[in-house]
Write a structure and sequence with these properties.
mainly alpha; 75 residues
Length: 75
């Protein structure tokens, strides 16, 4: 089964055939609705991805950037 790619993390892909996109989206939704293990896997992956955007993670990344800048400027 082939699905139209709607977007990726880095770039959006223009939609040139709206009807094809609608049909592919419908098939993808049906596939997820009919497949409990897939739903669970996707839900877990979504939660893991969302956790990457927590305030704690952003603060840790920002602190690491500050540490690197300070280290570079102190030499």
């Amino acid at each position: 089964m082939v699905y139209t790619v709607f977007f990726s993390r880095k770039a959006k892909i223009p939609v040139t055939y709206p009807q094809k996109v609608i049909e592919d989206m419908s098939l993808a939704i049906q596939r997820i609705a009919d497949n409990e293990p897939l739903r669970q896997q996707m839900a877990a992956a979504a939660l893991n991805r969302a956790a990457e955007f927590s305030w704690d993670n952003k603060a840790k990344k920002l602190n690491e950037i500050y540490r690197q800048v300070i280290e570079e400027w102190s030499h």
